[in-house]
Design brief:
- By secondary structure, this protein is α+β, with helices and mostly antiparallel strands.
- It has two domains: about 5-110, Phosphorylase Kinase, domain 1 (2-Layer Sandwich); about 115-335, Aminoglycoside 3'-phosphotransferase, Chain: A, domain 2, CATH 3.90.1200.10.
- The chain contains nine helices and 13 strands.
- The strands form four sheets. A six-stranded mixed beta sheet has the order 1-2-3-4-6-5. A three-stranded antiparallel beta sheet has the order 7-11-12. A two-stranded antiparallel ribbon has the order 8-9.
- Its EC number is 2.7.1.172.
Length: about 350
């Protein structure tokens, strides 16, 4: 067990259960806030070891049921991703509940110094992601899509109930996400979204997901990070290796992780997608990959609209992209049913 040697009030000293997770015989010399989190407190903890060296740790701390869910999500997600790409993920150390505060929970990991201002170039960024997907492909503990616990995007719970069908799993998640988005806007009606929603589930999802698992094709679950915006991928201090963290992991179709790469909100885009495809083959049918990429992009856009309902632009962004997908499918249906050259369609 470590000791807290800081000259602070006893109430400010680290909890006994947290100290027990730190190196045996170590002495805590500093605890400082670390990074930004809207839903949990985060800290950098420096520990001096008996041999005179130091180790630094990252703690995420949450209170109550929501805090416990966030901490559990972090522990399970980071442990899973670390198993497959340890060179890119801070080593998870421990998780637990404070002895002094049974309503307060913690996740502890190795602290990694990173270059905050630089977004890794496509080679570094996508090498980490492609490695995660390739190394975990076919190793789902149940052989199904899902995850052992419901993980968190921010503080939004993600239903990870196991399913043998990718279409069924993704449809269920999208219905849940849209219900959460509706609730976050206090049930405020959105005429276009209400018109698009049934078409999205009845037309778009079957059109782009069902072919992945029909006509002899199948999808092999792999572990995905599921929140790969640039705030969660940074260079380590060597300026070459990407550090990937803060996952809300699940076993899924690997292309889901590429949805955020397409999002115009982030300065990534086509060069990063092209780099990924150098390492991982496109799922069949290959001709649908662009539409699937748009479909998977919607997930993050819907969740952002849910987390930040005060910004109406976020809702309009995902509704407009949903509309494009619906129109694409309906136009395709009309083209198949009409003589060549006579396609005219407007939603």
């Amino acid at each position: 067990m470590a000791t807290d040697g800081r000259n602070v009030d006893d109430k400010q000293k680290l909890d006994e259960n947290l100290l027990a997770a730190l190196p045996q015989g170590g002495e805590v010399v500093s605890v400082t806030p670390s990074g930004m989190s809207d839903y949990c407190n985060t800290y950098r903890i420096e520990v001096k070891l008996p041999d005179g060296s130091s180790q630094v740790f990252f703690e995420k701390e949450g209170s109550g049921e929501e805090g416990h869910g966030c901490v559990q999500s972090a522990w399970m997600s980071e442990s899973a991703t670390y198993e497959f790409i340890p060179e890119h993920v801070p080593r998870p150390v421990a998780t637990g509940t404070y002895k002094s505060r049974p309503d307060k929970h913690f996740f502890l990991a190795q602290f990694v110094d990173m270059i905050e201002d630089d977004i890794p170039r496509e080679e570094s960024y996508m090498r980490a992601i492609a490695s995660l997907h390739s190394r975990s492909m076919g190793k789902s503990p149940t052989g199904k899509f899902g995850f052992p616990v419901n993980t968190r995007f921010g503080n939004l719970e993600q239903d990870n109930t196991w399913s043998s069908s990718w279409e069924e799993f993704w449809t269920r998640q999208m219905k849940d996400f849209l219900e959460k988005e509706h609730a976050a806007h206090n049930g405020e009606p959105h005429e276009e979204l209400e018109r698009l929603r049934p078409l999205f589930f009845e037309k778009v999802l079957p059109r782009y997901l069902r072919p992945l698992e029909s006509d002899g094709r199948s999808i092999t679950p792999c572990l995905i990070h599921a929140d790969l915006w640039p705030g969660n991928v940074k260079y380590m201090n060597d300026g070459k290796t990407a550090c990937v963290y803060d996952a809300c992991a699940m076993w899924a179709h690997n292309e889901v992780d590429l949805g955020v790469i397409r999002n115009p909100r982030y300065p990534l885009g086509k060069p990063y997608l092209k780099e990924y495809w150098k390492h991982v083959p496109i799922s069949e049918p290959e001709e649908d990959v662009d539409s699937r990429n748009s479909l998977y992009m919607l997930r993050g856009q819907i969740l952002l609209s849910t987390l930040y309902p005060h910004d109406p632009k976020l809702r309009e962004i995902f509704v407009s992209n949903m509309r494009l997908l619906v129109e694409r499918v309906l136009e395709e249906e009309v083209a198949k049913a009409s003589p060549a050259g006579q396609v005219q369609f407007h939603l």
